[in-house]
Amino acid sequence: MDIKTLYDANIINITIAKNAFDALYSAFGQHIESWQHEVADRLANSHWTGTASDHAQARIRFLGTELQSAHSELDFIGKALAKAAEQFALAQSHLVYALDDAKTAKLTVAPDGTITWDKDPASANYAGAGAETTAIAISNRITAALNEADHADQELSARLNHFATNASNGTGLDAATVAADQAAQTGREQIPPAGTDPAGVKKWWDGLTDTEQQKFIHDHPDQIGNLDGVPSAVRDQANRVNLRNLIKDRQNQLANLGPEPQMYLSVADMNGGPVENPDYTAWKAKHDALKQKLDGFQAIQDRLDGKVDNGAGGPGSEPPLLLLGIGDQGQGRAIVSWGDPDKAKNVSSLVPGLNSNLAGVGGGDAATAKRIYDSAVKSAEDNKETSSVASVFWLGYDAPQLDGPSVLMQDRAEDGGAAYNKFLTGLRATHEGDPAHMTAQGHSYGSLVVGKATQHPGGLPVDDIVLVGSPGVGVDKASQLGIGADHVYVGTAKYDPVADAPSPGMLIPGWAAVEAITNPDGSWHGTDPASETFGGQRFSVADGTVTDSHDNYFGKHGKGGDSLPNIGKIVSGHGNTITREDPR
Predict the structure, then answer these.
(1) What is the DSSP string of 45-62?
(2) Cα–Cα distance between 365 and 300 in angstroms, integer?
(3) Phi, psi of 377, rounded to the nearest 5 degrees
(4) Strand bridging mode 464-468 / 488-491
(5) Residue range 301-317: average pLDDT?
(6) DSSP letter at 191?
(7) CB 149 within 8 A of CB 6
(8) pLDDT at site 510
(9) For range 553-568, the mean pLDDT
């Protein structure tokens, strides 16, 4: 495909061909209806019986199937032409706009795509000091437009050849062939349902044209951005669109709540005190829930816009920050990654725990994932390796909050574990080149989520597991996590109140507390991962204090000791070099 061919292409001819096939499809359908009425139905109602009748009836039914199959094939051809016309028109418009912008910028585009410009500031045609940057951008747009058209051309050619082969050898009259063609057609028009195996999603996505992919991103950013098996860069593109939509939607909902009602009624209760207005109570509950999510989404948008930590994660940030998931289910969902996990040699994914929320993802939680990234890069460099890291922060579930006993229950971990397993399976499916070295990390209640994720059929597709500040992972032995006890690493600060099993003075109703007290190696959710009984690889962390140790595993306050460097070693594939600590 070259510039002249695409620029001069008469797209209307494809539409004319499409209309002709549509007319043929319609006429053929009328023919089938007439044949059904005049031949098949008359024969069926003729009361003709016997061996000859049976053979005739079978042949008529078979012929009816062949006619319907041929009818469907004609429909597929018309749809293929319609799709091609749309794709060519879009590619042509992209080319025309790029050429028009080049002309406006006083750039000359040669037939082979070479761009030149007048560099003399004294000339009337001087293109300006930024001409080279503009030329590069326009050249990229022209190349993209030509690639769009080339892909559309190849796809149409392949599909028409397929249908022509079906027609010439008779397979187009076979119901099974038509069913396969229909499945392929449906796949090009529908997004795979939730729960589809990520490998199948990846295959579906790769089978779409550039135009079809962009249409799905534009029309359904919420689905594409959160579909495991879709490449990470695509999810980022879709989720950025969806994030803006979520922010705008929450802003509109807040505006539509109307003015704040009066807090109290004009009557007093039995004790003479104020009586809260039920309308205010309802309004306040809706307002606060909407505002909380809006603030969370906006915090993430601010991070992506570079308004946090001196631009870290904003445009041009190195490493880039990708938005791999965003949604308003439950308390809200958000997944961010420093670096592209589809390209990185070492991929870490951290599941947070108690009190994690949307607002934290855009702020301190993103910074935590960045510190893990930096530590893994340093470890690689210390080992004379070229660093290749992606560090994911995964809030894909409703983390327990300090507003009830949810941290004692395992239902959130069960749901989160299923989603986390599917997410990592998706990263395996979309990774380019040799499989990445993947590390699952769980902090606090997040370690229970990781533990539950390992118990799904096929296990968790990771090479190493890191558990820090863990209240238990739902199993009694590190070997039960499915990757070998020597690949399960545990960090527990001496004075971490969450990781410590409850003492009699900390009794909270529920089996977890009772079990922990009666079992010296017990924790809130099973055997203490830091115990010798559990059998994991214990690495050194700072003792900390009751008030700060639980948050220091990732160097948040600079008091984590060996914890973050050890985690960096594990993430970079050098877990054998950690500073060890004896189990409790």
Answers:
(1) TS---SHHHHHHHHHHHH
(2) 10
(3) -60, -45
(4) parallel
(5) 93
(6) P
(7) yes
(8) 43
(9) 86
Place of tokens 């209240």: 471
Q: Return phi, psi of residue 218, to 5°.
A: -70, -45
Residue 518 has pLDDT above 80, yes or no: no
Region of residue 523 (phi > 0: left; psi between -120 and 50: alpha; otherwise: beta): beta
Q: Give the phi and the psi of residue 93 in degrees, each rounded to 5.
A: -65, -40
Give pLDDT, residue 173.
85
Q: Crossing angle, helix 175-189 and helix 131-169, to 10 degrees?
A: 160
Q: Yes or no: say if 466 and 573 are a contact pair by the CB < 8 Å rule.
A: no
| H/E run at residue 281 | helix 278-304
223's tokens = 């689905």
Mean pLDDT of 43-62: 87
Residue 26 Cα distances to 20, 186, 292, 407, angstroms: 10, 21, 55, 63
| Partner residues linked to 322 by β-bridges | 337
Amino acid identity for residue 207 in this structure: G
Q: What average pLDDT score do residues 28-45 get?
A: 87
- Please report which helix (H) or strand (E) contains residue 359, including its range: helix 358-360
How do 274-276 and 264-268 pair as beta strands? antiparallel
Q: Which long-range contacts (CB under 8 A, 24 or more apart) does 9-15 make?
A: 9/88, 9/92, 9/149, 11/85, 11/88, 11/89, 11/92, 14/81, 14/84, 14/85, 14/88, 15/81, 15/82, 15/85
Residues comprising the chain, all counted = 584
Give the tokens for residue 81.
Answer: 């032409």
| One-letter amino acid of 116 | T
Model confidence pLDDT, tens digit, residues 173-229 = 888 888 887 877 777 778 998 789 999 999 999 988 887 888 899 999 999 999 999
